[in-house]
Design brief:
The complex is a heterodimer of chains A (437) and B (189).
Chain A: H1 7-42, H2 71-81, H3 92-108, E1 118-121, E2 126-129, H4 138-146, H5 149-159, H6 163-194, H7 199-209, H8 226-230, H9 234-239, H10 241-258, H11 270-273, H12 283-308, E3 323-325, E4 330-331, H13 335-358, H14 366-395, H15 401-433
Antiparallel strand pairs in A: 1-2, 3-4
Helix pairs in contact in A: 1-2, 1-12, 1-13, 2-12, 3-5, 3-12, 5-6, 6-10, 6-14, 10-12, 10-14, 12-13, 14-15
Chain B: H1 14-18, H2 20-38, E1 76-78, H3 93-97, E2 103-109, E3 121-129, H4 138-142, E4 148-150, E5 165-166, H5 168-175
The chains are: A mainly alpha (437), B alpha+beta (189).
């Protein structure tokens, strides 16, 4: 019987299961381990180092410790076996729905992330694209879905019927909405540069034409060769580093704020709010908040990597070796596996960077956080769009000198206005809202 | 009247305001700590004989027993003298002074035909409930016969309440022999 009409269905189900349960959930589990271990060694401590293969349960004399690598599984089992306590004074419906509302959006955004190029399955000659849903609105989909997770945290804070949890929820609501603006605006130069909203195509462009932040090679060759500079986009790539670099910094910091990570983890700052929005939660409901937070962190780093650091591409012109047909741009059958490994390596590196920043930078004060979002990043992202537009305009034929000069004048006037606005807000707020301590 | 000095917040330069340099410097410091810990070269690795990750010792594998000071207060225990005679005369002073009431003694009379009849009393049972004991050392302070001492055993564990009550045999086992002058064996007195 010919079942080839079922292949797309099987492919989608297999991809959903593999990417969520095979890749991201273990990665979430082990990023909690990495968090604990890295924080420990940064602070000259030991960290989890005991949980290993429990041979004593089987009657042996000693366990195998394995540097505590089984710790995440023990944590998961603990989460499932602990009593799931619901206080009597909470709003039951919202209390129950809140953890799911934080975790689900984070997982949904995995759908558009390109994990790799393509795998051709032998024997049946079926090509699998390593993206769950190859949407043409990738980043927009991520923003639309990821901003839903603010509901989970706000509901959790409100339903807990506890003033500290409520503060946590309100803080997180304000913070996430504020930083979404900077998040969206900072991406516009990148999307203008690529002229594309499909994350897979963006990565493919970077694989051949150099990473967004590392344009050391292009289709013609490496940077030191003559061919590189004869390529039409060679100079554009380097000039675009200015707006794209700014976009990278703004976007990365906004992702930190959006995922409620240190130094912006005010919703759950223990010293002020006991534990934040999840104070009243226990067992697996509590664990779901953590899974949601770490998944959001992984998705965030995946987006940063996809847009700025070459996504799944190996870089340095190595991707050409995996091409099966240079003219058609078709990949070899095993290219997807290599690219998947490369992407996961980059994600792990970025998650470690997240953790390192967490244990390096102290927490911001709330007004500092809001000022950074509204006064610095919002203006910077707006000016950045102008800069990118002007550079792209100079690179495009068909513009005379007059619009070019007008654009530069308008950029300077606009930037001056923005900086003046920012300064005036800063001093006005600074004069009477500085803490007395 | 206390003198009030008004301190001005230091002005931040543009370099400080950008933060990125500061964050990079901080990340360098934290990474340095991470690497020294991974290679087991942190402060205290040699001088304190730790495991190399900070000043932490890996407890069951590494122990600090050799470094315990003379005055360390561990589990209280009864001691015998050099001729293996029990020193305790069952005066019950320790039972009375024990703040958490962990000690329980049943006295026993020494019969008059015993060569050491002048000692008069000895403990029939001597129980210390180690769940109650707070290791204060008052029993050692108060003992007129220097029969009870706090030894250096600190890992007192058990799987039941009964197991955590040290009886006389157990106390002598922990305490062992203690050499030195004790008044009650002095015949001149």
């Amino acid at each position: 019987m010919d079942i080839s009409f079922l292949y797309p269905l099987i492919e989608t189900v297999a991809k959903v299961l593999f990417f969520t349960f095979g890749l991201v959930l273990p990665l979430v589990a082990y990023s909690t381990y990495a968090e604990r271990k890295l924080s420990a060694i940064i602070q000259d401590r030991v960290g989890p180092n005991r949980v290993g293969i429990p041979l004593t349960l089987l009657g042996f004399k000693k366990d195998i410790p394995l540097f505590g690598l089984i710790q995440p599984i023990a944590d998961g089992v603990k989460g499932l076996l602990k009593e799931d306590f619901t206080p009597t004074y909470v709003r039951k419906f919202f209390f129950w729905i809140a953890p799911a509302l934080t975790a689900i959006p984070a997982f949904l955004t995995l759908a558009v992330i390109p994990f790799g190029s393509q795998i051709t399955i032998p024997f049946i000659d079926y090509t699998v694209n390593l993206t769950i849903a190859d949407l043409n609105v990738g980043p927009l989909f991520v923003f639309a879905i990821a901003s839903l997770s603010v509901y989970g945290i706000t509901f959790a804070g409100w339903a807990s019927n506890n003033k500290y949890s409520f503060f946590g929820g309100v803080r997180s609501c304000a913070q996430m909405i504020s930083y979404e603006i900077a998040l969206g605006l900072s991406l516009i130069p990148v999307l203008m540069f690529f002229g594309e909203l499909n994350l897979g195509s963006i990565v493919e462009q970077q694989a051949h034409g150099g990473w967004t932040l590392l344009p050391l090679w292009n289709e013609s060759g490496f940077i030191l060769s003559e061919a590189y500079w004869s390529h039409q986009d060679a100079f554009l790539n380097w000039f675009m580093l200015i707006p794209l670099g700014i976009a990278f910094i703004v976007f990365t910091v906004s992702i930190f704020a959006e995922t409620n990570r240190m130094p912006f983890d005010l919703p759950e700052c223990e010293t002020e709010l006991v534990g934040g929005y999840h104070t009243e939660y226990s067992s697996m409901k509590f664990a779901l908040f953590f899974i949601g937070e770490y998944t959001a962190m992984i998705v965030g780093s995946a987006i940063i990597i996809t847009l700025f650091l070459g996504g799944w591409s190996l870089g340095f012109g190595l991707d050409r070796l995996l091409l099966w047909d240079h003219e058609l741009g078709a990949w070899k059958s095993y290219a997807g596996i290599v690219h998947l490994g490369c992407f996961m390596t980059k994600i792990v590196a970025f998650v470690l960077f997240f953790i390192l920043i967490r244990w390096t930078v102290p927490r911001f004060r709330y007004d500092q956080l809001m000022r950074l979002g509204w006064v610095v990043f919002f203006e910077l992202a707006l000016i950045n769009i102008f800069i990118a537009a002007i550079i792209l305009m100079w690179n495009t034929d068909g513009f005379t000198t007059v619009p070019k000069i007008i654009s530069i004048i308008s950029l300077s006037v606009f930037s001056f206005l923005m900086i003046w606005l920012a300064k005036s807000i800063n001093t006005k707020r600074g004069s009477h809202s500085m803490p007395q301590s | 009247m206390a003198k009030v000095t008004k301190l001005k917040r230091p002005e931040m330069s543009t370099k400080d305001n950008i933060y990125l340099i500061g964050i990079a410097k901080g990340a360098f410091i934290t990474l340095k700590h991470a690497f020294t810990t991974v290679f087991g070269k942190t402060r205290g690795a040699d001088s304190l004989g730790s495991s190399g990750t900070g000043v932490t010792m890996q407890y069951p594998e590494q122990k600090w027993d050799d470094e315990l000071p003379e005055y360390y207060r561990g589990a209280p225990a009864l001691v015998t003298d050099e001729q293996d005679r029990e020193r305790c005369v069952s005066c019950q002073l320790c039972e009375f002074i024990c703040p958490p009431k962990a000690i329980k003694i049943t006295p026993d009379e020494i019969s008059s035909d015993d060569p050491w009849a002048k000692v008069e009393k000895r403990p029939k049972t001597f129980d210390i409930d180690m769940i109650r004991c707070i290791y204060c050392g008052l029993c050692e302070e108060v003992c007129p016969e220097q029969a009870i001492y706090l030894r250096k055993d600190y890992a007192i564990t058990g799987t039941s309440r009964e197991e955590m009550v040290h009886n006389k045999e157990r106390l002598y086992e922990i305490g062992g022999k203690r050499v030195g002058l004790v008044n009650k064996w002095n015949e001149l007195k």
